[in-house]
Design brief:
Oligomer: single chain
Number of strands: 0
Largest sheet: none
Structural class: mainly alpha
Radius of gyration: 20 Å
Shape: flat
Length: 195
Protein backbone atom coordinates (compact mmCIF):
# COMPACT_ATOMS: atom_id res chain seq x y z
CA UNK A 1 0.00 0.00 0.00
CA UNK A 2 1.55 3.26 -1.11
CA UNK A 3 1.26 6.34 1.00
CA UNK A 4 0.63 9.77 -0.52
CA UNK A 5 2.69 12.68 0.68
CA UNK A 6 0.70 15.46 2.27
CA UNK A 7 0.46 18.39 -0.12
CA UNK A 8 1.57 16.42 -3.19
CA UNK A 9 -0.40 17.08 -6.35
CA UNK A 10 -0.91 15.06 -9.44
CA UNK A 11 1.06 16.59 -12.38
CA UNK A 12 -2.10 16.31 -14.47
CA UNK A 13 -3.84 18.69 -12.04
CA UNK A 14 -1.15 21.31 -12.62
CA UNK A 15 -1.42 20.86 -16.37
CA UNK A 16 -5.21 21.18 -16.27
CA UNK A 17 -4.87 24.33 -14.15
CA UNK A 18 -2.50 25.84 -16.69
CA UNK A 19 -4.85 24.92 -19.52
CA UNK A 20 -7.75 26.57 -17.67
CA UNK A 21 -5.73 29.77 -17.19
CA UNK A 22 -4.68 29.71 -20.84
CA UNK A 23 -8.32 29.23 -21.90
CA UNK A 24 -9.36 32.29 -19.89
CA UNK A 25 -6.55 34.35 -21.42
CA UNK A 26 -7.62 33.30 -24.93
CA UNK A 27 -11.21 34.34 -24.16
CA UNK A 28 -9.99 37.81 -23.13
CA UNK A 29 -7.87 37.98 -26.29
CA UNK A 30 -10.92 37.13 -28.40
CA UNK A 31 -13.02 39.75 -26.62
CA UNK A 32 -10.25 42.28 -27.22
CA UNK A 33 -10.45 41.57 -30.96
CA UNK A 34 -13.95 43.08 -31.00
CA UNK A 35 -12.37 46.55 -30.88
CA UNK A 36 -10.64 46.07 -34.23
CA UNK A 37 -12.36 47.81 -37.13
CA UNK A 38 -10.61 45.67 -39.75
CA UNK A 39 -13.09 43.72 -41.84
CA UNK A 40 -12.95 42.07 -45.24
CA UNK A 41 -15.40 41.99 -48.15
CA UNK A 42 -17.61 39.12 -46.93
CA UNK A 43 -17.96 40.85 -43.56
CA UNK A 44 -18.97 44.08 -45.30
CA UNK A 45 -21.57 42.05 -47.19
CA UNK A 46 -22.92 40.62 -43.90
CA UNK A 47 -23.18 44.07 -42.29
CA UNK A 48 -24.85 45.63 -45.34
CA UNK A 49 -27.23 42.71 -45.68
CA UNK A 50 -28.24 42.94 -42.01
CA UNK A 51 -28.84 46.69 -42.35
CA UNK A 52 -31.72 46.08 -44.79
CA UNK A 53 -35.28 46.40 -43.55
CA UNK A 54 -36.50 43.02 -42.27
CA UNK A 55 -38.90 42.43 -45.18
CA UNK A 56 -36.17 43.30 -47.71
CA UNK A 57 -33.67 41.13 -45.83
CA UNK A 58 -35.95 38.09 -46.01
CA UNK A 59 -36.75 38.74 -49.68
CA UNK A 60 -33.06 39.14 -50.59
CA UNK A 61 -32.11 36.09 -48.51
CA UNK A 62 -34.46 33.98 -50.61
CA UNK A 63 -32.24 34.84 -53.61
CA UNK A 64 -28.90 34.49 -51.83
CA UNK A 65 -26.92 31.27 -51.38
CA UNK A 66 -26.73 31.77 -47.61
CA UNK A 67 -29.67 30.86 -45.36
CA UNK A 68 -31.30 33.85 -43.60
CA UNK A 69 -31.12 33.05 -39.87
CA UNK A 70 -27.66 34.54 -39.35
CA UNK A 71 -28.58 37.83 -41.02
CA UNK A 72 -31.74 38.14 -38.93
CA UNK A 73 -29.70 37.38 -35.79
CA UNK A 74 -27.05 39.93 -36.84
CA UNK A 75 -29.69 42.60 -37.49
CA UNK A 76 -31.18 42.10 -34.03
CA UNK A 77 -27.73 42.22 -32.37
CA UNK A 78 -26.69 45.32 -34.30
CA UNK A 79 -29.86 47.11 -33.20
CA UNK A 80 -29.55 45.97 -29.58
CA UNK A 81 -25.85 46.74 -29.12
CA UNK A 82 -26.24 50.04 -30.95
CA UNK A 83 -28.28 51.25 -27.98
CA UNK A 84 -25.17 50.79 -25.82
CA UNK A 85 -23.01 52.99 -28.02
CA UNK A 86 -21.18 50.31 -30.00
CA UNK A 87 -20.57 51.14 -33.62
CA UNK A 88 -21.89 48.80 -36.32
CA UNK A 89 -18.61 46.88 -36.69
CA UNK A 90 -18.12 46.33 -32.95
CA UNK A 91 -21.77 45.33 -32.50
CA UNK A 92 -21.45 42.88 -35.39
CA UNK A 93 -18.24 41.36 -34.04
CA UNK A 94 -19.84 41.02 -30.61
CA UNK A 95 -22.76 39.24 -32.29
CA UNK A 96 -20.27 36.66 -33.58
CA UNK A 97 -18.63 36.41 -30.17
CA UNK A 98 -21.84 35.64 -28.25
CA UNK A 99 -22.30 32.13 -29.72
CA UNK A 100 -18.63 31.42 -28.98
CA UNK A 101 -19.08 32.41 -25.34
CA UNK A 102 -22.31 30.40 -25.18
CA UNK A 103 -20.41 27.43 -26.60
CA UNK A 104 -17.66 27.81 -23.99
CA UNK A 105 -20.19 28.02 -21.15
CA UNK A 106 -22.00 25.02 -22.62
CA UNK A 107 -18.71 23.07 -22.80
CA UNK A 108 -18.16 23.67 -19.10
CA UNK A 109 -21.74 22.97 -17.93
CA UNK A 110 -22.42 19.99 -20.22
CA UNK A 111 -18.91 18.66 -19.65
CA UNK A 112 -19.32 18.74 -15.86
CA UNK A 113 -22.53 16.72 -16.16
CA UNK A 114 -21.26 14.21 -18.70
CA UNK A 115 -17.47 14.10 -18.56
CA UNK A 116 -14.68 14.06 -16.01
CA UNK A 117 -12.74 17.20 -15.06
CA UNK A 118 -9.89 16.59 -17.49
CA UNK A 119 -12.22 16.02 -20.45
CA UNK A 120 -14.29 19.09 -19.53
CA UNK A 121 -11.16 21.25 -19.35
CA UNK A 122 -9.98 19.95 -22.71
CA UNK A 123 -13.43 20.45 -24.27
CA UNK A 124 -13.48 24.09 -23.09
CA UNK A 125 -9.86 24.60 -24.16
CA UNK A 126 -10.43 23.20 -27.65
CA UNK A 127 -13.58 25.28 -27.98
CA UNK A 128 -11.47 28.44 -27.99
CA UNK A 129 -8.14 27.26 -29.40
CA UNK A 130 -8.80 25.06 -32.42
CA UNK A 131 -7.14 26.53 -35.52
CA UNK A 132 -8.98 29.55 -36.94
CA UNK A 133 -11.72 29.53 -34.29
CA UNK A 134 -10.45 32.64 -32.50
CA UNK A 135 -10.69 34.55 -35.78
CA UNK A 136 -14.11 33.07 -36.62
CA UNK A 137 -15.43 34.08 -33.20
CA UNK A 138 -15.13 37.76 -34.13
CA UNK A 139 -15.53 37.49 -37.89
CA UNK A 140 -18.80 39.02 -39.03
CA UNK A 141 -19.96 35.81 -40.64
CA UNK A 142 -22.17 32.92 -39.60
CA UNK A 143 -19.49 30.43 -38.54
CA UNK A 144 -19.63 30.79 -34.75
CA UNK A 145 -23.43 30.65 -34.72
CA UNK A 146 -23.42 27.56 -36.95
CA UNK A 147 -20.78 25.87 -34.78
CA UNK A 148 -22.87 26.54 -31.69
CA UNK A 149 -26.01 25.03 -33.23
CA UNK A 150 -24.14 21.96 -34.52
CA UNK A 151 -22.54 21.38 -31.12
CA UNK A 152 -25.90 21.73 -29.37
CA UNK A 153 -27.45 19.30 -31.85
CA UNK A 154 -24.68 16.79 -31.23
CA UNK A 155 -25.19 17.09 -27.47
CA UNK A 156 -28.94 16.60 -27.87
CA UNK A 157 -28.32 13.53 -30.04
CA UNK A 158 -25.89 12.15 -27.46
CA UNK A 159 -28.51 12.63 -24.74
CA UNK A 160 -31.05 10.72 -26.85
CA UNK A 161 -28.66 7.86 -27.56
CA UNK A 162 -27.61 7.51 -23.93
CA UNK A 163 -30.99 7.90 -22.23
CA UNK A 164 -32.98 4.81 -21.36
CA UNK A 165 -36.32 6.53 -21.78
CA UNK A 166 -36.58 8.55 -24.95
CA UNK A 167 -38.58 11.76 -24.54
CA UNK A 168 -40.21 13.66 -27.37
CA UNK A 169 -38.69 16.86 -25.96
CA UNK A 170 -35.19 15.47 -26.64
CA UNK A 171 -36.06 14.91 -30.29
CA UNK A 172 -37.63 18.37 -30.56
CA UNK A 173 -34.47 20.01 -29.18
CA UNK A 174 -32.27 18.03 -31.57
CA UNK A 175 -34.52 18.85 -34.52
CA UNK A 176 -34.62 22.57 -33.63
CA UNK A 177 -30.83 22.75 -33.34
CA UNK A 178 -30.38 20.96 -36.67
CA UNK A 179 -32.92 23.26 -38.33
CA UNK A 180 -31.28 26.36 -36.83
CA UNK A 181 -27.90 25.15 -38.10
CA UNK A 182 -29.30 24.54 -41.58
CA UNK A 183 -30.85 28.02 -41.67
CA UNK A 184 -27.58 29.58 -40.46
CA UNK A 185 -25.05 28.17 -42.93
CA UNK A 186 -25.45 25.69 -45.77
CA UNK A 187 -22.47 23.50 -44.74
CA UNK A 188 -23.92 23.39 -41.23
CA UNK A 189 -27.07 21.99 -42.80
CA UNK A 190 -25.00 19.13 -44.22
CA UNK A 191 -23.43 18.50 -40.79
CA UNK A 192 -26.87 18.63 -39.16
CA UNK A 193 -28.17 16.05 -41.65
CA UNK A 194 -25.23 13.78 -40.87
CA UNK A 195 -25.96 13.97 -37.12
Amino acid sequence: MSEKKVGSKNPLSYLMGLIQIYTILIVFMILGMIKSSDIWYDEVFSVRFAQLRMDSLIEMASRDVHPPLYYIYLKICMSFFGFFGLDVIQASKLASCIPALALLIFAIIWGKKRLNGTATTLFAFLTVTLPCLAAYYVEIRMYSLALMFITFEYAAMTDILESKEKKISQFIVMFCMALAAAYTQYFAGIAAEEG
